[in-house]
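dumping the sequnces here before i forget
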Amino acid sequence: MKSRSSLLDPHLLKGALVPSLRKLDPRNQWGNPVMFTVYLGAIVCTALLLRSAGLFEIQLVAWLWFTVLFANFAEALAESRGKAQADALRSMRVTTPARKYEDGAERPVAAADLRPGDLVVCEAGDAIPADGEIVEGIASVDESAITGESAPVIRESGGDRSAVTGGTRVLSDRILIRVTCEPGKSFLDRMIALVEGGERQKTPNERALGVLLVSLTLVFLLVTFSLPAFTGFLIRQGLGGSSPDLGSLVALLVCLIPTTIGGLVSAIGISGIDRLTRHNVLATSGRAVEAAGDVDVLLLDKTGTITLGNRQASEFIPAPGVTPLELAEAAQLASLADGTPEGRSIVVLAKQLFDLRARELAEPHARFVPFTAETRMSGVDLDSPDGKRSIRKGAAEAVKRHVEFHGGTVPAEVARDVDRIAGQGGTPLVVIDGSRVMGSIFLKDIVKGGIRERFAKLREMGIRTVMITGDNPRTAAAIAAEAGVDDFMAEATPEDKMRRIRKEQEAGHLVAMTGDGTNDAPALAQADVGVAMNTGTQAAREAGNMVDLDSDPTKLIDIVEIGKQLLMTRGALTTFSLANDVAKYFAILPALFAGIGAVSGKGPLAALDVMDLHSPQSAILSAVIFNALIIVALIPLALKGVDYRPMNAAALLRRNLLIYGLGGVVVPFPCIKLIDLSLGALHLV
Amino acid sequence: MNTLSLALVFVATVAVLSWPLGRWLHWTLQPASEDSPAERLLRLVLGSGCARPGGWRNYVIALLVFNAGMAAISWLVLTWQHHLPLNPDGMGPVKPSLVFHTVVSFVTNTNLQHYSGEATFSHLSQLTLMWLQFTSAASGIAAFAALARGLSGNRNFGNFHRDTARILILFLIPLAVVWALAFSLAGVPMTLEGSASATTLEGAVQTIARGPVAAFLAIKQLGTNGGGFFGPNSTHPFENPGALANFMSLVAIPLIPMACVWTFGRILGRPSHARVVSAVMFAFLALKIVATVVPESSPASALKELPVIQSANLEGKELRLGATTGPLWAVLTTSTSNGSVGAMHGSLNPLSLLGPFAGLWLNSTFGGAGVGMINFFLFMILAVFVAGLMVGRTPEYLGRKVEAREMTLAAAAFLVHPFLILGGTALFCATSMGEATIANPGARGFSEILYEFSSAASNNGSGLEGLSDNTDAWNIATAIVMLLGRYLPIILPLAIAGSLAAKQPVALSSGTLRTDTPTFGLMVFAVILFLGALTFFPAALLGPVLEHLSL
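..and the predicted 3d for all of it:
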């Protein structure tokens, strides 16, 4: 997926040629009324060639067909990249037999015959036959085929890293997997369908834009085909001249209807999704990408998004009467069996400060007490020669409750230290040895570099960021202030998250969030844009409407920008398309009306020929050629999307109005003149 | 350029007057308290059925039924006028197609007149038509009020009957009484007696038509109606006897359309949005005034060689009122869907016609009483759609998303106007229905046909004189155009408002395109200018521009 083919890869360009011809099928054209109008016009003009086929008529017909083909080409080009990706993905489908595990025995079955609930065994070197969840074992898995990330990832049973994807490969160890998906509906299948855009449906915004384009087409049909009646009247009134012929009218019509946007609109939509894919994000629908552009509240998990993944122990603060060494030793003992990054960082800090080696504690002497949600403490019970020791560390509140339950008190100094740590954005842990309070540990959160600037940019775009954390409110507030988020939710549970999303949505906000755990699934489903991390559980991946293969929560910001870019590209090209009409009017109308009212030579309306074009035929041809070429010229813009800079809506509108509105009025004049001069020089008119 | 600045100062004066009137209209439409004694008295008079609120569909149905009822009654009166009282001059029966046309014309607030009132209709008929000028204006304002309520997020669009009754009793009738009194003080006749006979100095007997003109005139100007009591409309000395009456008329023409914008802001609770809308409308009005008054300051080409000093095109002007008031009136009357005339539009220089044409084609700056704001709303929907895309958001208007359904309705409503004008003109240009009726050959003849359809479609009612338009073809065609041009652009926008009101509002952020900023105003301005120009540019070329360049 990560292979970044350049935008106009010659190979892709060539590959798009045949499909653009194949798209001449009327059934294909019918879906795009603007281009269908051009298509019909081209057919009519081709038929007219039977009556008279001069150089002008032949060129006109050729350029009309080019207009249709260029639009087809844009669409085919946008699709071709997805097709290439889909082919690569298809080759990953597992063809070797899967090792189905039944009643303690293995038996080979075809991967396509696996049903949800089946168990399969995978060992080092095996391809995982279907999406599933590890029920037993741990293994390193190569997911590079899907994520492009060459480093293997660890997948293990239980917890949030238990999901495996069909088509990926086990590198080491042995795992037992429970299949979770129906054949043909796997993650891989969905990915193929998505990048290929096979069942692409028009998004709501695309449909609304389609309505606008159709109505403009109707207006211009009316404008164009009322002209012969008008000129006919004037001619009968004795003004002379001739009514425009059908070919010229078709030329005028094709130039006036918004072919630029009409020809590029589906390329824009396809490439929007494609751009996401290139960011390693899979959207389940174009609708989700559009919604991303509207998002104005981001719920961001603190850990991993705003702060570097793990908190680090940075300081031991002993209670009165306790030496730092005593505290460090107790803290280390309490953390020996604590496999969490925080626990390990305590052991490391003790070693760094006091050179305390992590001792091997023999089983009979030590009993480890794991963290439970109930006690919210962990530690160790020791049977040492000088009696029983029970060492615990935990959140200040939990320890205080524990100490007071056993009749002790937490010294005021320790309470003060705890407050200070929390106030500085750290997480305080308190260590006790029996009922003796030893002191506190400063666990520090490290805010990611540059994140503050990123949030400032978001604020400029009108997007509010809300930090979600399980920390207590004081700690949360300190980190929120450091990171520059607009709001935070402390001590948040998944239910709180859900409630928050509902509340924001009721107030009219569109909410985006990221999540990976199964308990995030409901919130991911509720959010307008739910980005599931690829490392997350199957439930999370199914609940969201996007999956981030890199599992990078800050990606949300890119997603929003891509969504906005998609809509902006449509708007900009619509504006450009309409603005172009001014110049085309000035090219074609004087040519059509030149004879009217003429006493000798040119009639009065020839005065409108501000570009001083070579001849009426050259004027018409130049406008049609410009109209066709501009589609090609704008293909890169359609595929890349217009430049997006975070700024407020009014500034953005002024900028785009200037570039695409005013630019759209001005640019065609010199271009049409240039084409006219070239036609003259080449003796084509 | 003295005359030009005078015109602009005049417009500014009316703008100032429109502000308190907007408050008054808001008070009329949105009573602060439902239980004040005045409200209870009104309910007693109007009946409790008038208090029942409803959705946009009910509102539209009530509006259509009421308008149909009014049309039926006046059709009966006009058809049987020769058997009915108040016919002192013994007016005879009128041909059916003209009755149909006239009824439609007055019900739709168009007041396109294919007859001369003083020579065709009895006093009872004229009074019936006067009453239609009240109800048609009230219908337009009521529809506008319902739209504004819907856009403010209220799913209750109100009750049409109650709105209409309130608008008539509390707003239009009092206002019209004031104007009618002032008009009769200024010398406009007000009588139910028949024509006066006078013996001229030469001994000939002259019949001088008269009637309840002042009352007719007041609502004609205030309600953006424009239907004159006399054939020559406000160029007739009894409909425009002097400077004061002329001034009163000029003030009355744009007053209610301007006030409607302020009322719009008040109903929405967004005065700053109304200011932006108003600014855009004023910008267009100023452009049209400049585009008309400036070319009109050069003499008519046919008279250029006359050995007299001509400060302006004096042809077709009421010179007793000055040469500038004519073109200014022409712009005001076409900008507001009024249609009364203070000078002969047919005598305007060809380029000066572009201003009035632009007024008819855009029909939204300021547009008719109430309906002008509705038309402008359509342009705003189109503008927010394109602008919304350009800022990277699903377009929204006043916090509600504009999606395919709204766009379909807006596009349909937007298509009505060009379809009626260009389609109608093409049909009449291609057949003898039009060609046989024009008064001037060539490009001016084309302009006459184009103007007639533009006027009918925008429910304006003015005309380029000379067209022999009292034919069955013209009567029926323009009647159909008037009906479609009136009711579709009322029904469809209300449907949009209904659809928007049912949506969950979107919260405001700095990524939202605000509707109360100069940037938004610029966008709407550009959209109206572009769509208008792209649609009508070829027609303008073949009419006024061709004529001008051929001179």
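Chain A touches chain B through 78 residues (CB under 8 Å).
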